Protein backbone atom coordinates (compact mmCIF):
# COMPACT_ATOMS: atom_id res chain seq x y z
CA UNK A 1 0.00 0.00 0.00
CA UNK A 2 1.23 3.46 -0.88
CA UNK A 3 0.01 6.93 0.05
CA UNK A 4 -0.44 9.16 -3.00
CA UNK A 5 -1.61 12.76 -3.18
CA UNK A 6 -3.05 15.40 -5.48
CA UNK A 7 -1.35 18.36 -3.78
CA UNK A 8 0.46 19.53 -6.94
CA UNK A 9 -2.68 19.24 -9.06
CA UNK A 10 -4.91 21.03 -6.51
CA UNK A 11 -2.27 23.69 -5.94
CA UNK A 12 -2.21 24.48 -9.66
CA UNK A 13 -6.03 24.57 -9.73
CA UNK A 14 -6.03 27.10 -6.87
CA UNK A 15 -3.22 29.15 -8.47
CA UNK A 16 -0.93 28.67 -5.50
CA UNK A 17 2.81 28.17 -5.65
CA UNK A 18 4.73 25.99 -3.15
CA UNK A 19 5.82 29.01 -1.11
CA UNK A 20 2.26 30.35 -0.72
CA UNK A 21 0.90 26.95 0.30
CA UNK A 22 3.80 26.44 2.73
CA UNK A 23 3.18 29.85 4.31
CA UNK A 24 -0.56 29.13 4.71
CA UNK A 25 -0.06 25.77 6.42
CA UNK A 26 2.97 27.05 8.40
CA UNK A 27 5.64 24.70 7.12
CA UNK A 28 8.73 25.15 4.95
CA UNK A 29 8.70 25.01 1.16
CA UNK A 30 10.91 21.91 1.36
CA UNK A 31 8.17 20.06 3.27
CA UNK A 32 5.58 20.81 0.57
CA UNK A 33 8.08 19.68 -2.06
CA UNK A 34 8.73 16.42 -0.13
CA UNK A 35 4.98 15.72 0.11
CA UNK A 36 4.36 16.41 -3.59
CA UNK A 37 7.19 14.10 -4.59
CA UNK A 38 5.74 11.37 -2.36
CA UNK A 39 8.94 11.20 -0.31
CA UNK A 40 7.16 12.07 2.91
CA UNK A 41 3.72 11.17 4.30
CA UNK A 42 2.44 14.16 6.28
CA UNK A 43 0.91 13.99 9.75
CA UNK A 44 -2.87 14.02 10.20
CA UNK A 45 -2.68 17.63 11.34
CA UNK A 46 -0.79 18.80 8.26
CA UNK A 47 -3.01 16.73 5.95
CA UNK A 48 -6.10 18.40 7.45
CA UNK A 49 -4.52 21.85 7.09
CA UNK A 50 -3.67 21.20 3.42
CA UNK A 51 -7.18 19.85 2.71
CA UNK A 52 -8.68 22.95 4.36
CA UNK A 53 -6.69 25.23 2.04
CA UNK A 54 -8.11 23.37 -0.98
CA UNK A 55 -11.57 23.34 0.63
CA UNK A 56 -12.10 19.62 0.17
CA UNK A 57 -12.08 16.42 2.30
CA UNK A 58 -8.71 14.92 3.23
CA UNK A 59 -9.29 11.79 1.13
CA UNK A 60 -9.69 13.97 -1.97
CA UNK A 61 -6.13 15.16 -1.45
CA UNK A 62 -4.52 12.00 -0.03
CA UNK A 63 -5.44 8.47 -1.14
CA UNK A 64 -4.09 4.93 -0.83
CA UNK A 65 -2.96 2.88 -3.82
CA UNK A 66 -2.87 -0.92 -3.41
CA UNK B 1 8.00 -8.18 -5.91
CA UNK B 2 9.60 -5.28 -4.07
CA UNK B 3 11.21 -7.71 -1.56
CA UNK B 4 12.58 -9.78 -4.43
CA UNK B 5 14.11 -6.67 -6.01
CA UNK B 6 15.55 -5.57 -2.66
CA UNK B 7 17.11 -8.99 -2.04
CA UNK B 8 18.57 -8.99 -5.61
CA UNK B 9 19.96 -5.51 -5.01
CA UNK B 10 21.51 -6.46 -1.66
CA UNK B 11 23.01 -9.64 -3.18
CA UNK B 12 24.60 -7.56 -5.97
CA UNK B 13 25.89 -5.04 -3.40
CA UNK B 14 27.32 -7.93 -1.32
CA UNK B 15 29.14 -9.38 -4.33
CA UNK B 16 30.54 -5.95 -5.28
CA UNK B 17 31.71 -5.31 -1.70
CA UNK B 18 33.24 -8.83 -1.62
CA UNK B 19 35.18 -8.21 -4.86
CA UNK B 20 36.37 -4.76 -3.67
CA UNK B 21 37.42 -6.25 -0.31
CA UNK B 22 39.35 -9.00 -2.14
CA UNK B 23 41.21 -6.35 -4.15
CA UNK B 24 41.92 -4.23 -1.06
CA UNK B 25 43.01 -7.26 0.96
CA UNK B 26 45.19 -8.54 -1.89
CA UNK B 27 46.77 -5.14 -2.42
CA UNK B 28 47.51 -4.69 1.29
CA UNK B 29 49.03 -8.20 1.44
CA UNK B 30 51.17 -7.55 -1.64
CA UNK B 31 52.27 -4.15 -0.34
CA UNK B 32 53.14 -5.77 2.98
CA UNK B 33 55.58 -8.16 1.33
CA UNK B 34 56.85 -5.46 -1.05
CA UNK B 35 57.43 -2.93 1.72
CA UNK B 36 59.18 -5.48 3.87
CA UNK B 37 61.51 -6.08 0.89
CA UNK B 38 62.37 -2.44 0.27
CA UNK B 39 62.44 -1.60 3.94
CA UNK B 40 59.81 1.13 3.81
CA UNK B 41 59.09 0.86 7.50
CA UNK B 42 62.61 1.99 8.27
CA UNK B 43 62.16 4.89 5.80
CA UNK B 44 58.94 5.86 7.60
CA UNK B 45 60.89 5.97 10.84
CA UNK B 46 63.20 8.56 9.26
CA UNK B 47 60.34 11.11 9.48
CA UNK B 48 61.40 13.17 12.47
CA UNK B 49 58.91 15.00 14.73
CA UNK B 50 60.28 18.28 13.27
CA UNK B 51 59.45 17.17 9.71
CA UNK B 52 56.06 15.89 10.80
CA UNK B 53 55.28 19.22 12.50
CA UNK B 54 56.14 21.16 9.32
CA UNK B 55 54.22 18.76 7.06
CA UNK B 56 51.09 18.97 9.23
CA UNK B 57 51.43 22.76 9.61
CA UNK B 58 51.71 23.57 5.89
CA UNK B 59 49.19 20.92 4.75
CA UNK B 60 46.63 22.08 7.34
CA UNK B 61 47.30 25.75 6.55
CA UNK B 62 46.70 25.15 2.83
CA UNK B 63 43.42 23.26 3.47
CA UNK B 64 42.11 25.88 5.92
CA UNK B 65 43.00 28.78 3.60
CA UNK B 66 41.27 27.06 0.66
CA UNK B 67 38.15 26.49 2.79
CA UNK B 68 38.22 30.15 3.95
CA UNK B 69 38.46 31.37 0.33
CA UNK B 70 35.52 29.11 -0.71
CA UNK B 71 33.55 30.28 2.33
CA UNK B 72 34.14 33.99 1.53
CA UNK B 73 33.22 33.46 -2.12
CA UNK B 74 29.93 31.90 -0.98
CA UNK B 75 29.39 34.69 1.58
CA UNK B 76 29.71 37.46 -1.07
CA UNK B 77 27.53 35.56 -3.52
CA UNK B 78 24.78 35.05 -0.87
CA UNK B 79 25.03 38.70 0.20
CA UNK B 80 24.63 39.98 -3.36
CA UNK B 81 21.64 37.67 -3.95
CA UNK B 82 19.99 38.78 -0.69
CA UNK B 83 20.49 42.46 -1.60
CA UNK B 84 17.95 42.04 -4.41
CA UNK B 85 15.25 41.05 -1.91
CA UNK B 86 13.37 43.59 0.21
CA UNK B 87 12.97 41.40 3.28
CA UNK B 88 14.87 38.15 2.89
CA UNK B 89 13.04 35.20 4.44
CA UNK B 90 12.82 31.44 3.94
CA UNK B 91 9.74 32.00 1.77
CA UNK B 92 11.23 34.39 -0.76
CA UNK B 93 14.84 33.24 -1.21
CA UNK B 94 15.41 31.20 -4.34
CA UNK B 95 16.68 27.60 -4.45
CA UNK B 96 20.19 28.63 -5.47
CA UNK B 97 20.59 30.96 -2.45
CA UNK B 98 19.16 28.31 -0.13
CA UNK B 99 21.64 25.71 -1.46
CA UNK B 100 24.54 28.16 -1.20
CA UNK B 101 23.56 29.05 2.37
CA UNK B 102 23.52 25.42 3.53
CA UNK B 103 26.85 24.81 1.75
CA UNK B 104 28.28 27.95 3.37
CA UNK B 105 27.27 26.79 6.87
CA UNK B 106 28.56 23.25 6.23
CA UNK B 107 31.95 24.46 4.93
CA UNK B 108 32.41 26.80 7.91
CA UNK B 109 31.46 24.05 10.34
CA UNK B 110 33.86 21.59 8.66
CA UNK B 111 36.61 24.19 8.72
CA UNK B 112 36.01 24.85 12.44
CA UNK B 113 36.35 21.12 13.28
CA UNK B 114 39.38 20.77 11.01
CA UNK B 115 41.18 23.81 12.45
CA UNK B 116 40.67 22.60 16.03
CA UNK B 117 42.03 19.15 15.08
CA UNK B 118 44.93 20.79 13.27
CA UNK B 119 45.80 23.01 16.25
CA UNK B 120 45.65 20.07 18.68
CA UNK B 121 47.90 17.98 16.39
CA UNK B 122 50.46 20.80 16.24
CA UNK B 123 50.43 21.16 20.03
CA UNK B 124 50.73 17.41 20.70
CA UNK B 125 53.66 16.65 18.34
CA UNK B 126 56.32 18.36 20.51
CA UNK B 127 54.87 16.68 23.60
CA UNK B 128 55.77 13.23 22.26
CA UNK B 129 58.95 11.83 23.73
CA UNK B 130 59.43 15.08 25.71
CA UNK B 131 60.65 17.00 22.67
CA UNK B 132 59.30 20.35 23.83
CA UNK B 133 62.71 21.79 24.66
CA UNK B 134 64.11 21.12 21.19
CA UNK B 135 60.95 22.55 19.61
CA UNK B 136 60.71 25.84 21.45
CA UNK B 137 62.18 28.44 19.12
CA UNK B 138 60.93 31.53 17.30
CA UNK B 139 59.74 29.56 14.28
CA UNK B 140 57.68 27.14 16.39
CA UNK B 141 56.03 29.93 18.40
CA UNK B 142 55.12 31.87 15.23
CA UNK B 143 53.55 28.75 13.69
CA UNK B 144 51.56 27.98 16.84
CA UNK B 145 50.37 31.62 17.04
CA UNK B 146 49.31 31.52 13.37
CA UNK B 147 47.34 28.32 13.98
CA UNK B 148 45.65 29.77 17.12
CA UNK B 149 44.74 32.94 15.19
CA UNK B 150 43.36 30.91 12.25
CA UNK B 151 41.35 28.58 14.52
CA UNK B 152 39.82 31.64 16.26
CA UNK B 153 39.09 33.29 12.90
CA UNK B 154 37.41 30.15 11.55
CA UNK B 155 35.33 29.88 14.75
CA UNK B 156 34.17 33.53 14.42
CA UNK B 157 33.40 32.92 10.75
CA UNK B 158 31.17 29.99 11.75
CA UNK B 159 29.27 32.21 14.22
CA UNK B 160 28.82 34.80 11.47
CA UNK B 161 27.45 32.17 9.07
CA UNK B 162 24.88 31.04 11.69
CA UNK B 163 23.87 34.68 12.19
CA UNK B 164 23.28 34.98 8.44
CA UNK B 165 21.11 31.84 8.66
CA UNK B 166 19.15 33.43 11.53
CA UNK B 167 18.46 36.54 9.45
CA UNK B 168 16.71 34.43 6.82
CA UNK B 169 15.16 31.68 8.93
CA UNK B 170 13.86 34.03 11.62
CA UNK B 171 11.48 31.46 13.14
CA UNK B 172 14.39 29.07 13.80
CA UNK B 173 16.50 31.68 15.65
CA UNK B 174 19.57 29.57 16.46
CA UNK B 175 21.31 30.69 19.62
CA UNK B 176 24.84 30.54 18.22
CA UNK B 177 26.52 30.37 21.60
CA UNK B 178 24.18 27.75 23.08
CA UNK B 179 25.60 24.36 24.02
CA UNK B 180 22.19 22.82 23.31
CA UNK B 181 22.35 24.07 19.72
CA UNK B 182 21.34 20.86 17.92
CA UNK B 183 18.47 19.83 20.22
CA UNK B 184 17.04 23.37 20.28
CA UNK B 185 17.18 23.63 16.52
CA UNK B 186 15.55 20.22 16.05
CA UNK B 187 12.54 21.31 18.13
CA UNK B 188 12.08 24.34 15.87
CA UNK B 189 12.01 22.32 12.64
CA UNK B 190 8.72 21.48 10.97
CA UNK B 191 7.74 17.83 10.42
CA UNK B 192 9.19 17.59 6.89
CA UNK B 193 12.51 19.06 7.98
CA UNK B 194 12.55 16.69 10.98
CA UNK B 195 12.02 13.79 8.56
CA UNK B 196 14.97 14.91 6.39
CA UNK B 197 17.16 15.31 9.51
CA UNK B 198 16.16 11.85 10.74
CA UNK B 199 17.00 10.19 7.41
CA UNK B 200 20.32 12.05 7.13
CA UNK B 201 21.26 11.28 10.76
CA UNK B 202 20.44 7.57 10.34
CA UNK B 203 22.56 7.37 7.18
CA UNK B 204 25.45 9.08 8.97
CA UNK B 205 25.07 6.75 11.97
CA UNK B 206 25.26 3.56 9.87
CA UNK B 207 28.05 4.98 7.71
CA UNK B 208 30.09 6.04 10.75
CA UNK B 209 29.72 2.63 12.41
CA UNK B 210 31.08 0.89 9.29
CA UNK B 211 33.75 3.54 8.72
CA UNK B 212 35.10 3.30 12.28
CA UNK B 213 35.30 -0.49 12.00
CA UNK B 214 37.10 -0.13 8.65
CA UNK B 215 39.52 2.46 10.14
CA UNK B 216 40.31 0.11 13.04
CA UNK B 217 41.27 -2.67 10.62
CA UNK B 218 43.28 -0.27 8.40
CA UNK B 219 45.06 1.10 11.51
CA UNK B 220 46.01 -2.43 12.53
CA UNK B 221 47.45 -3.20 9.07
CA UNK B 222 49.34 0.11 8.98
CA UNK B 223 50.71 -0.61 12.43
CA UNK B 224 52.08 -3.95 11.22
CA UNK B 225 53.36 -2.64 7.88
CA UNK B 226 54.91 0.65 8.95
CA UNK B 227 56.01 -0.24 12.44
CA UNK B 228 54.01 2.68 13.92
CA UNK B 229 52.32 2.29 17.27
CA UNK B 230 48.59 2.97 16.82
CA UNK B 231 47.26 1.28 19.97
CA UNK B 232 45.86 4.54 21.34
CA UNK B 233 44.09 5.26 18.02
CA UNK B 234 42.50 1.79 18.07
CA UNK B 235 41.42 2.24 21.72
CA UNK B 236 39.82 5.64 20.90
CA UNK B 237 38.09 4.26 17.80
CA UNK B 238 36.76 1.28 19.80
CA UNK B 239 35.49 3.65 22.48
CA UNK B 240 33.74 5.86 19.89
CA UNK B 241 32.17 2.79 18.23
CA UNK B 242 30.88 1.41 21.56
CA UNK B 243 29.63 4.83 22.70
CA UNK B 244 27.87 5.38 19.35
CA UNK B 245 26.04 2.04 19.49
CA UNK B 246 25.23 2.33 23.17
CA UNK B 247 23.90 5.90 22.89
CA UNK B 248 21.72 4.86 19.93
CA UNK B 249 20.41 1.77 21.77
CA UNK B 250 19.64 3.67 25.01
CA UNK B 251 17.90 6.55 23.19
CA UNK B 252 15.84 4.11 21.11
CA UNK B 253 14.92 2.09 24.24
CA UNK B 254 13.81 5.26 26.02
CA UNK B 255 11.55 6.22 23.11
CA UNK B 256 10.21 2.66 22.64
CA UNK B 257 8.91 2.41 26.23
CA UNK B 258 5.23 1.52 26.10
CA UNK B 259 3.14 3.32 28.71
CA UNK B 260 0.03 1.71 30.26
> Tell me, what's the shape of chain A?
globular
What ranges of chain A have pLDDT less than 50 throughout 5 or more consecutive residues? none
Biggest interface and residues each: A-B, 16 and 9 residues
Question: Quick one: overall form of chain B?
Answer: globular
Helical content of chain B stands at over 70%
Share of β-strand residues of chain B: under 5%
Total of helices of chain A: 5
Keywords for this structure?
heterodimer, A: 66 residues, alpha+beta, two-stranded antiparallel ribbon, 58% helix, globular, B: 260 residues, mainly alpha, 9 helices
Can you walk me through this structure?
The complex is a heterodimer of chains A (66) and B (260). Chain A has helices spanning 7-13, 18-25, 29-37, 44-53, 58-61; strands at residues 2-5, 62-65. In chain A, 26% of the residues are buried. The mean pLDDT of chain A is 92. Chain A contains five helices and two strands. Chain A has 66 residues and is of the alpha+beta class. A two-stranded antiparallel sheet of chain A has the order 1-2. Chain B is mainly α and 260 residues long. Helix content of chain B is 82%, strand content 0%. The longest helix of chain B has 37 residues, at 2-38. The relative contact order of chain B is 0.07. The mean pLDDT of chain B is 79. Chains A and B meet through helix 2 and helix 3 of A and helix 8 of B.
Topology:
The complex is a heterodimer of chains A (66) and B (260).
Chain A: E1 2-5, H1 7-13, H2 18-25, H3 29-37, H4 44-53, H5 58-61, E2 62-65
Antiparallel strand pairs in A: 1-2
Helix pairs in contact in A: 2-3
Chain B: H1 2-38, H2 40-45, H3 49-83, H4 95-124, H5 132-135, H6 138-168, H7 181-188, H8 191-226, H9 231-256
Helix pairs in contact in B: 1-8, 3-4, 3-6, 4-6, 8-9
